[in-house]
Amino acid sequence: MIRKNALSEKLQEAVDSVLPIALIVSLLCFFFVPVGSGLMLSFLVGTVMIIAGMALFTLGSEQSMSQIGNLIGARLTKSRNIWLILALSFIMGVVITVAEPDLQVLATNVPGIDRMALIATVSVGVGLFLAVSMVRILLGIPLRWLLLAFYGLVFVLAFLSDPGFLAVSFDSGGVTTGPMTVPFIMALGVGVASIRSDEKAKDDSFGLVALCSIGPILAVLLLGFLYPGSAGSSETVILEFEDSMSLGWGYLSALPGYMEEVATALAPIFVFFLLFQLAALRLPVAQLARIVVGILYTYVGLVLFLTGVGVGFSSLGYVLGGEMVNQGMGLLLVPLAVLMGWFIINAEPAVHVLNKQVEDLTSGAISAKAMGRSLCIAVATANGLAMVRVLTGIPILWILVPGYLLALVLTFVVPPIFTAIAFDSGGVASGPMTATFMLPFAMGACSTLGGNVMTDAFGLVALVALMPLITVQVMGAVYVVKLRRSVQPAAQPMPAYGDDEIIELWEEVA
Question: How high is the pLDDT of residue 495?
Answer without folding.
Answer: 46
